[in-house]
Amino acid sequence: MATKKAAGKKVAKKATVKKPAAKKPAPKKATAKKTTAKKTTAKKATVKKPAAKKPAAKAKRAPNPAFMKAMNISPELAMVVGSKPLPRTEVTKKVWEYIRKNNLQDKVNKRNINADENLKAVFGGKGTVSMFEMTKLINQHLS
Predict the structure, then answer these.
(1) pTM of the prediction?
(2) Which structural domain, as residue segments, surrounds residue 104?
(3) Is the pLDDT score of 40 beyond 60?
(4) What is the CATH number of the domain that holds 93?
(5) Within a domain: residue 2?
(6) What is the C-alpha to C-alpha distance for residues 87 and 118, in angstroms, rounded to an integer?
(7) How many distinct structural domains can be found in the chain?
(8) Is the pLDDT of residue 8 over 60?
(9) Does residue 52 lie in a domain region?
(10) Does residue 41 fall inside a structural domain?
(11) Could you give the CA distance from residue 103 to residue 109 in angstroms, rounded to a whole number?
(12) For residue range 54-92, what is the model confidence (pLDDT) as tens digits?
């Protein structure tokens, strides 16, 4: 057999030549542009719908009669808001007036109320309650 083995031949490697960095082209001079007529394509005009107008002079919302029902107040809560029957909404307003007048809102965390002696009786002996817990505790004193 007269075949030659390819493994015996050495393959010559090509030398890699680094190309110099491409130079930036010189800035072009401003040339006068020829005015050519461009074809204008007809675009569909988007029609904006006007915002729906609110009905004019709507009747004022009537409050829920359940909130306006006068509730009997417990003796503990009466020390804060008074003894005559009041609706829940008015009781909450009066409690907030009492809190602001006596400066009982916490200085650091405004959501907490620091109870004094009258409010401790309403809050079930707790010294500090959150605003959200306060309404729940007040509702226990209404019947």
Answers:
(1) 0.55
(2) 68-139
(3) no
(4) 1.10.245.10
(5) no
(6) 20
(7) 1
(8) no
(9) no
(10) no
(11) 13
(12) 656 667 888 778 778 999 999 999 999 999 999 998 999
